[in-house]
């Protein structure tokens, strides 16, 4: 069905997305998650003494709007729509992370009772990490166009071997085993920036055992804008019943609504053979990470929201995705709030915008996510979400550069998030690590990729 121009009448369900899919949306520059680190200082005021934030309460209101100096394991923040300031384009700044070497012996900070260690180092731009049912660790190196398999053969928490599973890919990001949750998957699916391919798989494969089969060849890609756009990553996940394949596609620009945004800023759904495409949800500026909640089978996403409206707009978010849902981009954000750059457009859509479940501090660059399905961590962690915050570029004081925990009870988010893995910013405000991917290892440890120090970190409890 072709989208029609808004004439003030209600636009039903998926037609909202059709306005985006057929009409266009623009992406963020090398999306804030992709902003390159700078080697020359740009904001000399970044350094300041670290703050001590309380961990016995959930910070709300102004207290929840911190920066890297107040981040620490256990700090909890709850941000609501009522906390948001009015948009202020004049307040927008470019404060890209200044790259620092990892200090000698430095490790990320973790909560009491946990330990962090290098699982693997010396990788090249490690992004998504996934764990096969047999425990093999698959790491997607996007810039290199390859996937490596890491193995901890002696169970000491460090990978002793690595092999190239496949190379020659085009900006790969998402990876999934099919059938999902099977002990013996038959295929590995990989989401390139412009396609989805799959390889035959047998447990224990160190390299692809057969040629690639391209099952989707027209994922929107190319021409990504810089400086508030450039969303080239594509994540992939299968429904709990293995009947649907979800593919996330970020916008091309920050807030454009032209034809270049066709089939972007959305989550698409296919059958596992790559056919029968439908628009699952729309108005999601950059749904970098997607995952299935194990108990309910609901689809969730981790999202980069738009830039250049001020330090505290617009919050990123983690949310359950409603089928047919419209999340506002580019005309609205977080409910009825109109983006001033699209003043007066599509008034009929205002009341249809879904408010996400958990708002995350603006410009954090929320990337990959996973549900904790292991048994190693304390019981209160089970079923909760871990999400990687790659770090800000469009904020006067840095935020992000950490992994957060999002509590979920009976399939519903509790509304706040908690710092879990921090410490990637040094005392001068320079950045030595940037989390991207998260996955649960077979032994229940959490694996975290870091595409600045080119490391896979392992976080364990009581070891």
TrEMBL record:
Residues 88-102 have a biased composition (Basic and acidic residues). InterPro entries: 6-blade_b-propeller_TolB-like (IPR011042), Beta-prop_PDH (IPR054539), Quinoprot_gluc/sorb_DH_b-prop (IPR011041). Gene3D superfamilies: TolB, C-terminal domain. Residues 27-109 are annotated as: Disordered. SUPFAM superfamilies: Soluble quinoprotein glucose dehydrogenase. Residues 108-310, 351-458 form the Pyrroloquinoline quinone-dependent pyranose dehydrogenase beta-propeller domain. PANTHER family: HEDGEHOG-INTERACTING PROTEIN (PTHR19328), MEMBRANE PROTEIN (PTHR19328:SF53). This is Sorbosone dehydrogenase.
């Amino acid at each position: 069905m072709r989208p029609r121009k808004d004439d003030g009448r209600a636009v039903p369900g998926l037609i909202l997305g059709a306005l985006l899919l057929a009409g266009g949306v623009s992406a963020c520059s090398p999306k804030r998650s992709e902003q390159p680190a700078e080697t020359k200082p740009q904001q000399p005021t970044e350094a300041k003494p670290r703050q001590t934030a309380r961990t016995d309460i959930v910070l709300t209101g102004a207290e929840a709007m911190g920066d890297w100096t107040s981040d620490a394991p256990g700090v909890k923040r709850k941000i609501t729509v009522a906390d948001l300031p009015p948009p202020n384009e004049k307040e927008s700044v470019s404060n890209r992370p200044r790259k620092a070497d990892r200090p000698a012996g430095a490790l990320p900070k973790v909560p009491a009772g946990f330990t962090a260690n290098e699982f693997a180092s010396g990788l090249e731009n490690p992004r998504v990490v996934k764990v096969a049912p047999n425990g093999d660790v698959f790491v997607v190196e996007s810039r290199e166009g390859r996937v490596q398999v890491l193995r901890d053969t002696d169970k000491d928490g460090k990978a002793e071997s690595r092999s190239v599973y496949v190379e020659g890919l085009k900006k790969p990001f998402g990876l999934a085993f099919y059938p999902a949750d099977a002990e013996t998957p038959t295929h590995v699916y990989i989401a390139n920036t412009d396609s989805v391919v799959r390889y035959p798989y047998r447990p224990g494969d160190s390299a692809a055992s057969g040629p690639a089969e391209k099952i989707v060849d027209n994922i929107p890609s190319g021409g990504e804008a810089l400086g508030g756009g450039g969303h080239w990553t594509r994540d992939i996940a299968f429904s709990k019943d293995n009947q649907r394949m979800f593919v996330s596609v970020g916008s091309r620009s920050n807030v454009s609504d032209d034809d270049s945004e066709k089939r972007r800023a959305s989550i698409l759904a296919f059958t596992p053979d790559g056919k029968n495409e439908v628009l699952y949800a729309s108005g999601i500026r950059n749904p970098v990470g997607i995952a299935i909640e194990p108990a309910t089978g609901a689809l969730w996403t981790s999202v980069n929201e738009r830039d250049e409206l001020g330090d505290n707009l617009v919050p990123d978010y983690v949310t359950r995705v409603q089928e047919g849902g419209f999340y506002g981009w580019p005309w609205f954000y977080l409910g009825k709030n109109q983006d001033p750059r699209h003043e007066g457009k599509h008034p009929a859509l205002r009341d249809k915008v879904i408010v996400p479940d958990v708002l995350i501090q603006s410009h954090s660059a929320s990337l990959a996510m996973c549900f904790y399905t292991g048994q190693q961590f304390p019981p209160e962690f089970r079923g909760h979400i871990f999400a990687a915050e790659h770090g800000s570029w469009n904020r006067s004081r840095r935020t992000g550069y950490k992994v957060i925990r999002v509590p979920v009870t009976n399939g519903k988010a509790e509304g706040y998030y908690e710092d879990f893995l921090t410490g990637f910013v040094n005392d001068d405000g320079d950045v030595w690590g940037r989390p991207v991917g998260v996955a649960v290892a077979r032994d229940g440890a959490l694996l975290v990729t870091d595409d600045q120090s080119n490391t896979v970190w392992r976080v364990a409890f009581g070891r």
